[in-house]
Amino acid sequence: MALRDQTNMGGTAETFLTTHWSLIEGVQKQQDPDRALIGLLLERYWKPVYCYLRRKGHDNEDAKDLTQGFFHEVVLNRQLIQRADPTKGRFRTFLLHALKQYLIDQSRRQSTERSIPQDKLVPLDITDPPALPQTISELTPEDCFLYAWKSTVLDRVLSEVQAGCLADGLETHWRVFHDRLLRPILDECEPPSMADVCRRHGVASESAASNMMVTVKRRFHQALKKQLRATVLCDADAEDELLDMLRSWGLGAQDVP
Fold first, then answer.
1. Spatial separation of the C-alpha atoms in residues 70 and 80, rounded to whole Å
2. How far is CA 26 from each of CA 45, 74, 84, rounded to the nearest angstrom?
3. DSSP characters for 3-18?
4. Is residue 28 part of a domain?
5. What pLDDT score does 201 carry?
6. pTM of this structure
7. Which helix (H) or strand (E) holds 137?
């Protein structure tokens, strides 16, 4: 699976979030949930919700309206928050179940008008929805939801790793990793030879370039595992998620030390 829709979704508000489940538990304890916390949750999951709705047959505008309505009615009104139970497993599975129930409730309504009070709405910028790749048409709505979730995780991890490399003076390391490993996966093309990569970025030897890639791959592995650990209850589940992610992107576990 090639995940192309890089959108810089991660943001910088990590101080608001330890894990998705601890976020939910924190919101549950508040009389007036912190809108910044809920907004961060919304930011991280609106794309999977939107893509699921598109594959269910809703056009762009209807899917945007339903996405807004779901997060307003289910998240902001705390129906989702009140029902959240970490013992039930992965948060995205819980969210997808809630979305399906929301669609059932919507279909039962006599009126199709959706009214969302503006003073109640957490801002959600979906003026430029993600473009769905052609292969999405072959997926079920549930798999489309999962595809978009993985894409969002990848965006966030790559942004974090790139920013860390640049901050630590490892720009060449990042560029070698990007050209040799990342771009071929995203663009579904053959990787350039190590000799070409060395010439392009002024690296003295192929062994030096290989060591640079190992450094960045290790950072990628750590950042990805951190993101996945936030959505599950134990390290074993995080390892399962990690292996599934790597397979989705055409990476074997041996490719990321």
1. 10
2. 18, 17, 11
3. ---------S-GGG-S
4. yes
5. 96
6. 0.69
7. none
Kindly report the CATH number assigned to the domain that includes residue 49: 1.10.1740
> Which domain, by its residues, includes 185?
168-255
| pLDDT tens digit sequence for 111-165 | 445 555 555 455 555 656 666 666 666 788 998 888 888 888 888 899 999 999 9
d(CA 31, CA 193): 58
Question: Tens digit of pLDDT for each residue in 43-56?
Answer: 778 889 988 998 88
234/19 Cα distance (integer angstroms): 12
Of 62, 137, 160, 72, nearest to 107 by C-alpha is 62
Q: Produce one character per residue of 212-233: b if its CB has 16 or more CB atoms within 10 Å, e if not.
A: bbebbbebbbebbbebbbbbbb
Q: Count of domains in the chain?
A: 2
- Chain centroid to Cα 209, Å, comes to 29
**Is residue 122 domain-shared with residue 174, that is, in the same domain?**
no
Q: Does a structural domain hold residue 250? A: yes
